[in-house]
Every structure is written in C-alpha cells, then in structure tokens.
Design a protein that fits this description.
Length: 207
C-alpha cells in the first residue's frame, strides 16, 4: 500500500498527534521531521508541504493545545454566582489537563511558551484565559472579589498549574488530588474576597 497523500487532512491531523506525543514524552532534540513522519506513517515531504518544516509543525501542536483548552473552558456555562463560575472554570482546566496530558505538557511544560494577554480589553478571541478574566471582572464589578483582574487571574492560574502538574506527575492519589484541588482553589478565591462577601459567605455556612 502506498503512503497517503501529503496534503490529506487526515495526514495533517496524524502528524500533529504524533508530534504532540513525541514532544510530551521524549527530548525535544529527538523530535525530528523524519522521526515524526515515520511515526505518522508518511514522508518528510508531507511535513514540509503541510507545515513548512519542524517549527511550523510544533506551532500547529501549540495551536491545537490552545484551541482545545479554549473549547473546554468556553463550554462552562455562566451562572448568577461568579465564585461558583470561577470554581467551575478551574475544574474545567483541571479536567482538560488530565484528559489531554500530552497537550498540557507541550503547552505548559516548556516546549512552547504560552503568553496570554493579561489586559481584559486586549485578550484575543481564542485565548483560553479570556473566560477566566471575564468571570473575575464580573466578580470584581459585583464587589465579590477585591483587586484587579490580571493579578487575580495569575494567582488562580499559578495554583491550578501547580496542582495539575503534580497530579499528572503522579504525586497524589485520587482522593488527595480531589481534596487538594477543592481546598486550594477555595482558599485562593477566599484570599481575594471583599470583607463583605467573605462575611456573607461565612454567615451562609453557619448552622
């Protein structure tokens, strides 16, 4: 059987898939055009035809990771409770990382840099941080959180990244991972709550 056409969309997807797995599991220096093409069952010519070379292929992997995460977080519905929305967005991020560990490793493991635009008015359409900043903006506007959207988003992202990275590395068993996620995200959000909203939340929890 001959090799598939170099301009076939299926071949393109397979090359991105193979490159993703290799970038996440092997040293980057070993991820050559020939190695990826061989793993995908096609020729090196397909890589150059579809992506222009190794750099273009790695950029395609990054784009797929960003788009996949964006689809996940934008699928989280908004509610009347901005804190609940932020928690659900954090849960969606964690779920995406667990279900797409190779993409997560490529995007946040140093293979490709991810630099979201921090200014709420300048965030790109496909930026997966946009829904998080929008929810934070709403919480600040409603006097639930106190601070600027960017540093709040960064603190939440730092906590999330540490949790997901440790979980993917096998540092936690399932119950510990679940407990750590819940307590860490809740504590991070509490740290940014206004005194009034914190007091109100405390009163709601009293018997």
């Amino acid at each position: 059987m001959g090799r598939p056409k170099t301009n076939d969309e299926t071949v393109k997807e397979r090359l991105v898939e193979c490159a993703t797995e290799m970038l996440a599991t092997t040293p980057q220096a070993s991820v050559t055009v020939r190695a990826v093409a061989t793993a995908a069952g096609t020729s090196t010519a397909a890589v150059y035809s579809l992506f222009g070379g190794k750099d273009g292929l790695i950029s395609a992997v990054r784009d797929e990771a960003v788009a996949s995460l964006f689809r996940t977080v934008t699928a989280v519905p908004a509610s009347a409770d901005p804190l609940a929305d932020l928690y659900e967005l954090a849960a969606a991020y964690r779920r995406w990382g667990r279900e797409h560990s190779h993409l997560y490793s490529v995007l946040f493991g140093g293979v490709q840099s991810f630099k979201p635009s921090g200014a709420p008015g300048a965030i790109g359409t496909g930026d997966p941080v946009r829904p998080l900043v929008a929810a934070i903006d709403r919480a600040v506007t409603e006097s639930v959180l106190d601070g600027e959207a960017t540093p709040i988003a960064v603190s939440l992202w730092v906590a999330l990244h540490g949790l997901v990275t440790l979980e993917l590395a096998g540092a936690f068993d399932a119950p510990t991972a679940e407990s750590a996620f819940r307590s860490t995200i809740q504590a991070t959000l509490r740290g940014w709550m206004t005194p009034a909203s914190f007091h109100e939340a405390f009163l709601r929890r009293r018997p």
